[in-house]
Amino acid sequence: MEKTLSIIKPDGVSRNIIGEVIRRLEENSIKIIAMKMLHLTKAQAEGFYAVHKERPFFGSLTEFMTSGPVVVMVLEGENVIQKYRELMGATNYKEAAEGTIRKDFATDIEKNVVHGSDSPETAAFEISYFFNNFEIVG
Ligand code: ADP
Ligand code: MG
What we know:
With about 140 residues, this protein is an alpha+beta fold. The protein is about 40% helix and about 20% strand. It contains seven helices and four strands; from the N terminus they run E-H-H-E-H-H-E-H-H-E-H. It has helices at about 10-15, 20-25, 40-50, 60-65, 80-90, 100-105, 120-130, and strands spanning about 1-10, 30-40, 70-75, 115. A four-stranded antiparallel β-sheet has the order 2-3-1-4. It starts with a strand and ends in an 8-residue tail after the last helix. The model has no long low-confidence stretch (mean pLDDT about 100). Adenosine-5'-diphosphate binds near residues 52, 61 and 110. Adenosine-5'-diphosphate binds near residues 52, 91, 109 and 110.
């Protein structure tokens, strides 16, 4: 079974979309095997997004990610990395497919409500960034 890391970003939490995101996971038979709420520090956000540190949006992205609490989850299922990316929609909500989370709720290319790992290697890094083995059930 594959695992992926999901984050409901500060815009999703502050706009009360936590339940809607979780509803879509459950509706699509994606299992939540770990979950917690965190308010990231700048250093924690920078470490999580280290792969983007040379990008022009890095400073703004890490500010945004520390602007309020986030909900981090580990999801499990067959092909769940790709399946969850499909539920999220494209990074730029203007290019996201109809019915995706980002198409329905994102307000900005940065404030796009959700994060999902993009490969098995990234998922392993991102899951271990937030959770230890005792915090993951199943
Ligand atoms: P994704 O979250 O779809 O995997 P990326 O890994 O490319 O997208 O980027 C990480 C996050 O950085 C995006 O979800 C978004 O919040 C932000 N971001 C990406 N591209 C831009 C951009 N051109 N301008 C501002 N923020 C961006
Ligand atoms: Mg990414």
